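Data deposition worksheet. Section B asks for the primary sequence of the deposited chain exactly as it was used as input, without tags or linkers unless they were present during the calculation. Section C holds the resulting structure in token form. Section D is free text for depositor observations; keep each observation to a single sentence. Incomplete worksheets are returned to the depositor.
Section A, Depositor: J.P.
Section B:
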Amino acid sequence: MEIQELKLGNLIKISPRENEEGVLFLTDIQQSSIIGEMVTPRQGYHFRIKFDEILPLELSEEWLTKLGFAKAPDNDEIWVDSKNFILFKFSAFESGFMEESRLAVVIDSMHQLQNMYFTLTGEKLTLVTPPSFL
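Section C:
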């Protein structure tokens, strides 16, 4: 994972040596570490973590739903963002943003999804489910 890819607000996975694995909402990027707010498993916990303890968060139906996407009624692999009507394909074989019924931008992780969504819409893609309900 390239640190240059990360932006404030990205969801990332962490695997620190002495703590449990979790998902963080990135709040600050510093010279050799990041600061984030834990989303799961211990919501609201803030801490600093080194770059080598950061992992990309895998795409999943659960996280797509939490970010406001819903399955298209006629295709289980196509997800729609109801706010901007952006189409996103999610399958075991390939995932990415759709354009004219074809995969236009391949996406492999949640931070890539969030960053490309911003590029396409000019809006940040954030959790629509309040953290207390995660």
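Section D:
Residues 110-121 form the longest helix (12 residues).
The mean pLDDT is 89.
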